Amino acid sequence: MNLTKRITRIAALALALAPTLASAQVATWNIDGSHTRAGFSVKHLVISDVKGDFDKLTGKVQVDESDLSKSSVEVTIEAASISTRDEKRDNHLKAADFFDVAKFPTLTFKSTKVVAGKDGAITVTGDLTMRGVTKPVTLEGSITSAITDPWGNSRRGVSLTGKLNRKDFGVSYGPAAVVGDEVKLDIQAELVLPKK
According to CATH, what is the number of the domain 26-192? Predict the structure, then answer.
């Protein structure tokens, strides 16, 4: 086979494999809700932190292995799944003074920008919608490399922290001396790659 024919065959093979190679670099991972924590904390009486979680959420993370900055995140949280380990307080948080879950049953987050740093460090900026109000929120943290669990599933972890002002989202109940305005966010997520 002469050189020209060899180059032509190599080029044709490369073109044929290009879509496969590209898809291998970009994959959509599901958030494993049973191994994910969407947590928050807020000051009470300026002396202690009340911590809580949302127990039910779903979402997807599209990861571009070749360029993490092209990745994206979409999450939906059930507002009524809020838990602070106190039933009376949780019922109040579900009421109109706070999340008003009857009127606004979900919180959503959709990324608008991902900045990749060294060793898996990431900064994710996105639109958080809560109580019908959408505001940008920035989260910082890291994403791990993929591992294979004992059942043959590909998994990876994401750890993110951030903060917001509750009053920006219309949650204005009580003075800051009783309920802090700043809410700290702590997300520990486990992602699983759907099997084909």
Answer: 2.40.128.110
